[in-house]
Amino acid sequence: MEEKKLPKLPDFDNQEMSDKAIDYMIKKSIERTKEEKPNLQEHVQKIQNSRGAGLESAIMTEQVIKAILIYMGLKEDKILSLTYGGKINELIKILEKNLEKDGWRDETIKNLRRIKGLRNIYAHVPGDYESGILRLDPSENYYKKAEEEFRSKSLEEMNEIFEDLEKDIMKRTMEILKKLAPIREKEKIKSH
Question: Which of 58, 92, 104, 170 is spaced 20 to 30 A from 178 at the CA atom?
């Protein structure tokens, strides 16, 4: 059965013709999208799942960082007003101020900055649905200079990096507390 051709511009006073024209355009758009981007639905689902897992990991690390900031004397209302990146920046300031520069401190700060950048990418960069590659959009306008390393990576690579960084940061938070606790306790004694 041959499809009936509809006029290019329907008579919008005729609701039935308008509805048919709109239904036809939607049907054709869906068919064209399926033809041009056969993996779109699968890619969208995988990107959504990755975003969810990544952001959940970020929430866990954020809670630990928040606890460290409170312990180090930052006011809770100030901390609550900070973004994820703001909390990390505050922790970095504390580390730079209180710990001697060494390989461990530098690596910790580097990984804090990396996880902050990666979390922002997961939260704000759209999927790349044009290339057929399962990744987030590699357009340079979505990435800060410090995030360049992530720009053209596949979603699988980024997920692995995020998972490794999250594990590293969670492990380092215990070490951060061990290193900062004596400093903070001396500060408390001095202030009394």
Answer: 58
Q: What is the pLDDT of residues 33-75, one digit of tens each?
A: 566 665 667 777 888 888 888 888 888 899 999 999 999 999 9
Say how far apart CA 146 and CA 65 lie, in whole Å.
21
Q: How far apart are CA 18 and CA 12, in angstroms?
A: 6
Instruction: Compute the distance between CA of residue 139 and CA of residue 126 in angstroms, rounded to an integer.
Output: 10
- Residue 169: the pLDDT is 93
Fill in the DSSP letter of residue 9: S
Beta strands in the chain (DSSP E): none
Query: Residue 179 corresponds to which tokens in the numbers above?
Result: 């290193």
Residue 60 CB neighbour total at 10 angstroms: 12
Say which residues have a Cβ less than 8 Å from residue 12's Cβ, sequence separation at least 6: 18
Residues 6+ apart with CB under 8 A from 118: 54, 147, 150, 158, 161, 162, 165
Kindly give the parts of the chain with pLDDT less than 70.
Answer: 1-12, 29-30, 33-40
Q: Is 127 helix (H, G, I), strand (E, B) or coil?
A: strand
Tell me the pTM: 0.76
Hey, where are the domains in the chain?
1-36, 38-191
pLDDT given at position 73: 92
